[in-house]
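# step 3/5: fold
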Amino acid sequence: MKYINFTVIVVILMLGCASRSDKSRVVSTNPIGKINDTLSEKYAVVSDFLDTKIKDRSKKIMIHSRKINTNMTLKILRLNEIYALDSIDSKKNYEDKTFYKEADWEIARKKYSKNSVTEIENATDSGGECCWVAENFNYKNVIFEELQPGSKAFIEKYIPSKITPFEKNLDCTTHYEFYLFSEPIYYQNRECLIFTFSKGDLSGLSGSSNIIIYKKKNGKWVQTHIGMPNWFS
């Protein structure tokens, strides 16, 4: 009888250990899944936004591999020059001074930046994370360029000094449109997704920086606002 009781106790202990082992494996894999899902969701929004900007899908475009500094997103957001978009044609409808709230901004600053308010107010596009890759976008007719647009090396690579008027009128490299994006950030308790977007033309190297604001409606991310500081160009 003692032998039987001993055997039963051993079996129970083994089952208990196995159960705890299974639970530990489940817990350890869940955070990884959540992180991957989050990145996938963020990048899908950026990709969908880019698709809305491409009119001629036969043309090659350029995306700057290095992401715009996230501090730039926080900087533009803090300026509070935010416009609600018309739900039909996505054009500016009215300036929405109710969207920005200092408390929400401060939560985002602590989560996504190591800089002080003053440092963020002086932020520039440079210094962002690396890097955008082809897998992040649905549109595949893309050149991913590491050189900073407007830099000497960039100009020498894409805008030769000896170019004829005839070549300027051709659909050549000087006519590539280039796009820059920051890493998207969640805002207002994950109700919004915000990123900085800049677009330029290699022929003039001019561009503008805006923040793009999406909200989730009926389970789908929809652009509802745009931040357009009038002194950015």
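# step 4/5: annotate
Confidence is low (pLDDT under 50) at residues 1-36.
# step 5/5: archive (pending)
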